[in-house]
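We read letters as residues; the fold follows as tokens. A sample entry reads:
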Amino acid sequence: MSRSIANGNYMKIKLLFLTSTLLTSFVTPVCAQEYDAEVAKSGQKSLVSRIAKAPLAAAGIVTGVTVGIPVKIAKDTAYYSKKMKPSLDDGINVQGKNDMIGHAMSGGLTAVWALPTGLINGTIHGVQRGVDVGSKRPFSKESMSIKDPL
């Protein structure tokens, strides 16, 4: 019985921490706008503004990396598959659309090459984009690798 009470308290503390973190990340940029009004005339960002926007930027980075890595892996795997398949078709000398054995061989070899390549490149580019764009534009499609940045 004491264990269920302890788990209940743990869940309450966890919920309280999550709620306070979310409120901090959404409220502090609003409070920082008052300080930004004075500093905007000079064209520089105040230290208070940068500190206040830090939780939002951190949440944007975490979201960008968490969502961006699987999305970028899928995109890169599809890209490398489409890029390699015609080359293997020519290399194996596939004879038109009716050559099922040739298409199966080139498709299998494409998967062997494209899956690890997409996994490695997608992970690297997903982390890079999540950190770079996620800190500047949190929760944007570009930070989560859904849309390519301009």
Remarks:
- The chain has two domains: 1-52, 57-150.
- The chain has a mean pLDDT of 77.
- Residues 84 and 110 are 6 Å apart (CA to CA).
